[in-house]
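Protein fold
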Amino acid sequence: MNLPERLYYPLHEAAEKLGCQIKDVIHFGATGALNISIYIRQWIETEESKFVVVYDALNVDADQGSSGDFKSIEGDSWGVHGIYKKILPEDDIAQSATFAKWFGGFFYISPSDLVDFEFNYDSEVITIHFLDTHCSEYFDGSIQLNNIKGIEIPARYICIMEDDINSINHSGEMPQPLEQTSVKRKPNHNKQSQFIKALIEIHYGITQSDNVYELMKEGSKHTPLGRMREDFENVGFRLPAGHKTVQLWLDGVDLDPLEISKSPMEISKK
């Protein structure tokens, strides 16, 4: 009988297919040699537990939709719904963040979560802090879900995609235990941030993007308005974001230099 190919394998079946023990499979995932997934039937937001959603709306590799103030994004095997922005307290480093009301499907597990599970692989649950819709963290179209406190998911839902089994690496690397304390930034992956930074430096001067507070400050009797704020007000526009948010967009973003030959031109004199 011609049976269809398997798309994924639960953890114990993946170990059998790879010819090793379950703890070996987990170790391969913790070191990045193997991409490991988990099936989440449905996670629903509560006041005590929220997931931050990080993605680039222009590059996301999935179908997007809107319903009022909420957005939804659906891939082939997953969905993130009820996406909304929320203003954060003034003392927060970011002025706003994006959250999800609910999501479900197959997601990739962060190696840092697998490190912890490797030492507790007999446990019935795995604590999840980070999820990703693509196996590569540098894929521009991916969506990341972050919950610093973590949520517990039954370990029986851990699985490995057939494609990932076939593309297992022969070597991994030492895991980074501090990964779960912060969201990884992707240098230069956001062309919008590069474009904004370039415009600021073209108009206000090189390195001015390193301290947008001075450009955006409100001013007082003793200090003038920031140059950018003044330019916005002169044409009747309100600044669409605060200096903390704009600085967060720009931090860690490098501009691509234009390669210009420095060879002197030969000028013939007649």
